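Figure 2 data, in text form.
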Amino acid sequence: MAFEPGGYAEKLGNRHEGRWVVKQLLRLLNEDINSVTLEAVGDDERGVDLIVLNNDGIRQFQQCKARNASKECWDIGDLKNRRILQNMQFQLDRDPKNEFGFVTGVPASVLGDICESARHSSGDPEVFYKHQIEEVGQSRRMLFCRFCEYLGLDPQHEDGRAKAFDYLKRTHVVLWPDDQNSRDELLGWAGVLVNGEADIVIGTLAEFAQNNMRKTLTPIDVRIYLAKLGLHP
């Protein structure tokens, strides 16, 4: 079932996105990542719900979508029509080190599978195209060609294939179901990382995120806020 449209003030009231943001704050507490920025400004904001700075210095621009209208999955045309591919291209073109993360509550395996193939390739775009696109079959070739077409690339030329390969290698599709399992995962993380009732910790982190839009949050920021409320690592 599709969600009712909501405004900016309801961004973290969205159960799916709110849970994902809380997970990133828990990752901060565990020092798995360096910082999280919610609803950035300027070009950073385009098509992006949050920016995660990894410990290796690479920024991942993440867009969250709980649903694809009433569909049970995403195909490549849906990703184009909802401007997810265009947002990905814009953010990746800004810096060759940037990554793009598409966090979805329903599968987007058509994109995710080919991105994983690119990351697990030899690193040579032409070898990737020959062995992991052409030789796989017609459906994979058609998918690659449509991906190129939607991004203004020519799959018949080496430069177009190389650019497509670069985009695929830096794009990550994360399946984050909008269900009880994701909530249970958060409860488990909260119970391990913070002294206190896990439900309270999750609610407190969601409120903290809501009150700190457009700010870059670090592990220290989260720890200080929790400590003020008597919640300690």
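Caption note: The chain is about 50% helix and 15% strand.
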